[in-house]
Amino acid sequence: MSLQISERGRLLNDDDDELLILRYDTTAILAHQKPRKQLFGWKSQSYIGSLSALILLFVLFTAMEYTLFKFNLPAMNPNDRDVIRFPTSLEDLRKLNEVLTVYMDKHFVNIYVNFIVTYIYLQSLSIPGSMWLSILGGTLFNFWLTLITVSMVTIIHFI
Questions:
Q1: pLDDT tens digit string along 105-139?
Q2: For residue 72, what are the contacts with CB-CB under 8 A and spacing of at least 6?
Q3: Of the four listed, 4, 49, 56, 145, which is most buried by Cβ atoms within 10 Å?
């Protein structure tokens, strides 16, 4: 039995009968494989790397923020140290403003750098509170300086 290829590219036998070519079907093999267990509904395994990177970045940036607060802020009274935290209400914001205003004359650069880094930290990790920092910046610094700073930090966030 000899096989030939017709003008249309089909396989023919000696009697010029068209032969049916069976193709290897990979779906039949895949159907018999055990399905993978899915963790939290994700189908791929790439989420492990992404989740690990997110946790690592969160821990790293939180440690950097803590270190900056610990070593960059000027020496304060113990009563004032309790007020230094992310404001969650208007009352917290007023107390923080009162404390930081006292230190603004001698340590403007330190407080300004802390403001910028904290704003980037909150924006980058989508932690609520950047609105409070915008208000705080408006009361601590010049309006135009705060406007330019918040605009530049927001642009840095998108980069």
A1: 888 898 899 889 888 888 888 788 788 888 888 88
A2: 110, 113, 114
A3: 145
pLDDT digits (tens, 9 = 90+) for 13-35: 555 554 444 444 444 444 444 45
Query: What single DSSP character describes residue 141?
Result: S
The CA distances from residue 115 to 10, 21, 40, 54, 118, in Å, are: 74, 72, 38, 23, 5
How long, in residues, is the chain?
A: 159
Alpha helices of 73-142 — where are they, by DSSP H? Answer: 78-81, 90-104, 108-124, 130-140
Q: Which two tokens stand for residue 38?
A: 């899915």
Whole-number Å distance between alpha carbons of 6 and 4: 6
Global pTM reads 0.60
